[in-house]
Amino acid sequence: MSVNMLRSHSSPDLFLHEHINQVFTAMQGIFSWHSESLITSEIREICQKLSCCHDLGKGSSAFQEYIADPERFLEENDPLDKSHTPLSFFLTISKAEQEKRDSLETLLLCACIYGHHGGLPLLPPRCGQSGKQKTLDQFAAGRMYKILCTQIENTDYAALEKETDVPLTGLSSDKKMFLKISRFLKNHLFSSLRKLSVDDAVIFRLKTQLSFSILLEADKAFLAVKNSDLYLKRDPRFWQSQWIDLFIGNPEDTEVNRLRQKAKKAVQESIANNRQDFIQSLTAPTGLGKTLLAADWALRNRELSIAEVHYPPKIIVVMPFLSIIDQTSGVYKKLLEFGTDKPDGSWFLTSHSLSDREYSPEMEDNEAGFFIDTWRTELIITTYDQFLMSLVDPKARYQMRFHNLCDSLIIMDEVQSLPCHMWQLLNTVFKYLADTCNTKILLMSATLPPFVKDARPLLENYKDYFIFRRYKFIFKHGGSQNINDFCEKIGKRLINWLEIGERVLITLNTRKSAGMVFDYLQKLWPEEYQDIKAFFISADVTPKDRLKKIEEIKKGRPCIVVSTQCIEAGVDIDMSLIIRDFAPWDSLVQIAGRCNREGERGEFLTVEIADLSDDKGKRYSEMIYDIIHLNVTRHIIGDRDTISEHETLAFSEEYFDRLNSAKDTGKKHLERFAYWEEDVSIHELLRGDKMQHTFLVIEQDRELLNKMKQIKDIEDRWKRRDAWRKLAGRIASISVSIFARYGFKPEEIASNQMGQWILHDGYYDSESGLKIDSIYADKNNVSIIF
C-alpha cells in the first residue's frame, strides 16, 4: 500500500522529509563553525532529535490542507486550526513518557519544539505566585484542546513516520492521555528542573538555549538563503593585532601616551601568560585608551586560537549608549582599512536601532537580512539591550543569536552602568557561559563594580595607572540649590567663559532642568560672541541632531554644552570646565572623564558638583536615581570639599563595596532565569518601568512618511516586515523619547500613523529639542514630563 507524502512548505514547495534534511544539514554547518568542546556528542544527538521532531505537527490533515491552498483554508477555517507546534509537542512528550526517557532531556526537547515559532516557554508559577505569560503546561488550554483532539484523530501517522523516521505507533490520543501528560509534566519534567541547584539549573538553561538557538537558525536557513553553498561556506576572516600598532603610529611623547604604551605592553603580557582566564576585567582611568586595549585583547586572542580552531572566535563589543557605538565603530573600521580594501558584513556589523541593514551589495535582501539577524560576521558592535536579550530573553528572535555568544570574545564596556539588581544574574550566567560555552569575557570601566567575582584583572597593577591629575571635584555642600538661583549664578559667569574661550559642559539630571539652563543662557548670550556655539544634548534631541552636535564639539573650539547624563560615559570630548548636578559616584567619575581628557590643559581643572532642586524643593537627583546610590555617594564623600582624580579609585571601590551590601543585587532575577519563571523585560531591568513615549520628527525626513505608506500597502506580510526592518534605522535617527507621568496625552502633539506618533510641526527645534514643557503641567504647575 502506498503512503502519502506530507508537505512542509508551499513557498518554496518542500516535502517534510526535505525540510528535515535541510535543517540537519544547516545544523551541521553551524556545528563546524564552533569548537568540539561546545558541540559535544550530546548536543549533536539533541539537535538531530529536534530536527526530526520539531515539525511533527505538520502531519495533521488541517496543516496539509492549509499548505495545499493557504488562501482558501484561511477563508474557510480558523487560523488556529493549522497550528503545528502544540501537536509536535504532544507527540514528542507522549513518546518520551511512553519510553520513560530522561526528564531533563525531555524538557529540553519539548520546550524547544513547542517554542520554536515564538520563544522558550516558561514553567507555571509556583504556589503563591502569579503570572501573565503562557506556560508549557498550557499547551492544550482553551480552544486548543479541541483542536488538538481533532488533529490527533486526523493525522496520517504512517506518512508522518516515513517523512520523519520517528516511530509513532502505540501512542494514545484519548482524554486520559492529556491528563497523563499534564501529570508527567508536573511530576517529572518540572520537578526535575526545580530540584537542581541554581548553578546546575543555569547550566541546563544555557544548554537548552544553545540547542534552541541552533534549531532556530537551521529551521530558517535554507528558506532564507536559497543557495545552500552560500549558507554553508563561511570563509574565516583573519584580523591582525599588528593593525593596532599601525593605527596608533608614532604618538607624541606625553604623560598620557607613555601611560597608554605601558598599559598596552602589560595587556599583551597578561594575554600571553593567562590564556586560561576566561573572564577578565580592565579597570583603567578615563582616557587611557580602553577601546584599543580591548581591541588588542580580542585580536591577540583570535590569533592565539587559530592553531586550535578552524574559525577564529567572533568578537562581540557591547556598549550602553548609541552615542559611543558610533565612535567605537569608527575605530574598528579604521583598523580594518589596514587589512582589507572592501570589508563587507562578513567582516563587521553593527546591531542596534540606528544601524543600517547592509551586508553585501551582491546579496539579495532576504539573504542579507538573514545573515544580519543571525550575526553572520566576525565582529558585532551592539547595545546592552540587544546583547542581554540574546543572552537571557526567551523570545525566538533573540535566542536565534545565542549560539554566537558561545566560543566568542565578548567585550563589555562601561559596565558600571548595569543596575545592581542584575549583578547576581550576570555573575552566574557569565561564569557558566565561560565554563561551559568556551566564551571569553572582558569587562571594562573606569569604576568597575565587583559583580563578577571570578574576573581576573587584565592590568594586574591597575592601581598604578590612577595617577593622573587632570581634574579635581569641588563639592558644593550646604543643602540643595534652587534651579533658578543656579541659572542666575552661571549666567553671571557666562561672559568670563566666552572671553577666555572656555569649553564648558553643564550636565543636569532631567531634560526639564537642562532645558531651563540652556534657555536661560541663550537669552543672555551677547551678540558679539555669536561665533562661539552653545549646544543642547538630551534624549529629546533626535539622534541625527545629537550625533551632529557631538561631532562639532569634538572639533575642540570654545563652546558651552548643556546636556543630560546621556553624554557622560564614553563620549570622546575634551572640556576645560564641567559643572554637574549631584548624582551617584560612578556617574560623577564618568562625567569627570570628559574634563582635560588628554591632560594638556594643566593640572586639577575643575569639576563642580552642585545639588539642584526645583521650585518645590525636590532634588532633581532624587527624581532620577535610586536613593541608596545617592546616600552611599554622600557617605563616601563625607565633608570633603575636594577630591582629586588620583584619589577616585579608592572612593570607587568603597562605593561599590557599600552598594553590594546595601542593595538588592538580584537574587530573584537569577532564580527566575534558572528555573524558567516569568520576569520583567530586559528593557525594564535596565531602565525601570516609567512610561515612555516616542515621536518621529518627520520634518527632518519628509520623504520617510511616503516610504512608510508604500510599505503599508505591501500585501505579502514577510516582504512588508523586511521593508519595515530595513527602514528601522532611518526611523530611529529622527525619533525622540520622553518619560511622562500619568495625564500626558501624546495625541495632543502628534498624530498616530502606521503605528508611529508623528510629531506636529512646531513642537521640535534642532537646537533645544522637544518644546512641550510649557504645555504640560499638573495643577501644582509641575511638569509631567521628566
Automatic annotation (TrEMBL):
GO biological process: defense response to virus; interstrand cross-link repair; nucleotide-excision repair
Domain HD Cas3-type: from-to ranges: 9-221
InterPro entries in the cross-refs: Cas3-like_dom (IPR054712), CRISPR-assoc_Cas3_HD (IPR006483), CRISPR-assoc_Cas3_HD_sf (IPR038257), DEAD/DEAH_box_helicase_dom (IPR011545), Helicase_ATP-bd (IPR014001), Helicase_C-like (IPR001650), Helicase_Cas3_CRISPR-ass_core (IPR006474), P-loop_NTPase (IPR027417)
Molecular-function GO term, any one: nuclease activity
Domain spans labelled Helicase ATP-binding: 271-466
Domain of life of the native organism: Bacteria
Keywords, in A-Z order: Antiviral defense, ATP-binding, Helicase, Hydrolase, Metal-binding, Nuclease, Nucleotide-binding
One Pfam family, short name: Cas3_HD
Domain Helicase C-terminal: 482-643
Family: In the N-terminal section; belongs to the CRISPR-associated nuclease Cas3-HD family. In the central section; belongs to the CRISPR-associated helicase Cas3 family.
NCBIfam families per UniProt: cas3_core, cas3_HD
Protein name: CRISPR-associated helicase Cas3
Species assigned in the record: Desulfonema limicola
